Amino acid sequence: xxxxxxxxxxxxxxxxxxxxxxxxLITIVFDISEKIDDFLDRxxxxxxxxxxxxxTFIPWLYSMLNALIVFLAVIFFTSKLASNNxxxxxxxSGISFNRLLRPYLISAVMLLILSIFIxxxxxxxxxxxxxxxxxxxxxxxxxxxxxxxxxxKLKPDLFLYIxxxxxxxxxxxxxxxxxLKNGQLISQFKAERLVWDTTSGKWSAKNWxxxxxxxxxxxxxxxxxxxxxLSFHPADFSDKPNLIxxxxxxxxxxxxxxxxxxxxxxxxxYELELHKRTAIPFSILILTIIGVCISARKIKGGxxxxxxxxxxxxxxxxxxxxVGEVFATNTSLPSxxxxxxxxxxxxxxxxxxxxxAPK
Length: 359
What we know:
Layout: H1 3-41, H2 46-83, H3 86-92, H4 97-137, E1 147-155, E2 158-166, E3 171-181, E4 184-197, E5 202-214, E6 217-228, H5 241-244, H6 249-262, H7 267-295, H8 302-330, H9 335-355
Antiparallel strand pairs: 1-2, 2-3, 3-4, 4-5, 5-6
Helix pairs in contact: 1-2, 1-4, 2-4, 2-7, 2-8, 4-7, 6-7, 7-8, 7-9, 8-9
């Protein structure tokens, strides 16, 4: 490895880790100021606050910030090289711009691999301790979402339907349970409301009707209220962001397949989370190329203008990420395309910026 490579890699990684350490430190200070009252009220031990919360909080913060911090770090130190005429000297010595890019790409790939490992394997481990601490000393972090048009395959021949489910009230409306045999409907249980009784741990069907089919014969039963033992729980109708936050790549892949078999309405959210863990690290590579290309040229305004361009592009990246997630959640847009959309767009941007970079 040439001296130039070592010089740029040291500059790249040194600037990146310095900036991200500053951002993490500032974020932790603000987080402490926000949560200190809860920690004191619940008498959280100092050791638990430091090691079980903030030490496990750092990998999550790193994962959230690293792509944009890489972008800003590249712009920052490359712009300084350009303003000191170091880029001009390097290119004038006969070194091509592609050769100049090599140490940047080496550094970016190193950070990419580190980020993928952290996202898929380290953060799920640290989240276990972090979420346990929050449940004990901060608040209940359980997340709940209303369910609409819920379909479940409880068994190979047993199918459930609820038109609307209220997580807070633990009440389902327009409930239906179909029993099949050899592809033929043999029993149908319907109720206007299905209410969870927390005392008995059973479901209570209100204004129910049971239709039994035996060949050409049909019988009906009716009633106002009926306690039932059904093979599902209110928790099955809630989103599980905390659960998937503690799963590594292999566990989450298996979990998503199981949720698909159940007909869960939250599968897209889980798929988005899985794909984001890979897509965001790959943006490091793309943003590095863009950062070098826009800051290698010495311009009027220097570092300030380069940072303006960088922050503007960073905001566009965040905006596209949010738009893609919203479209994937609320439309038939595939989750993998929605998550990779910003990377696809910025790959095109990187190509055109590269074409006009100083050669």
